[in-house]
């Protein structure tokens, strides 16, 4: 089997690429020529180069000989780009990859979406069929990309499915660095009660789940939530990380809404100037919105089974941050 992985130089994409190689796949990666490709160094892979956000169709050679496409590439949480660029990458770019796959008669297509398309979970744990409710323009663009992919599969008779990752973490990730760093430094203060639910997925488990979605016949036409074995309250998550570092956790609670309004004002001032705000409202969402999901469908149809318990995954990630010097670096806090 030959797989094409878009966005393979990113966190999830690089782990998926390595997982596919371990399973015996031939792998071609599609990345931007000027992107950081250090995560792929030394791997026995083929390279194809393109910017899926521009108006040029993909060259035929990109899909030549490919059996399955894993479309991971996306614009994620960038604050210093025009809002329309999220749709250029996450919708128009997805259409470009879909059309190229159809033209090349690719056998399978896996589109990577996000559980963010369901926004705040009103009745956790959420199932795949629960309604869309995106909470920001990133999530809106991913919803539009997901709907486009599902519609394309039906209309163009392309065997494909959608996967929605839950809270991806692990060595190499920087998304959760601030949380770990503040806990390690003793500066962490909980915003709100801390009793909201949070669900994480160790990146190696996610890679295995995405690969299965491209292999199982039962996956065709379906949506799958790929998550870890358990979800916990934010208080519990913070305590687990603090215990790894043997650090105390402050009992001080910061009120939510003053921080939310501060984020709103920062965005109002900074975004028109293309400056990354010091505080975002979406970061406050982390403290006030439930994020818990039901992964039974992936278990049943994909034979997906997370192998890394939350405590083990958190320990591996926490030690990677520490061993990499990221907890001591003053620049790490800005990541």
TrEMBL record:
Coiled coil: none annotated. Residues 3-227 form the NAD-dependent epimerase/dehydratase domain. InterPro entries: Epimerase_deHydtase, Lipid_A_modif_metabolic_enz, NAD(P)-bd_dom_sf. It holds the Pfam family Epimerase. This is NAD-dependent epimerase/dehydratase. It comes from Planktothrix serta PCC 8927.
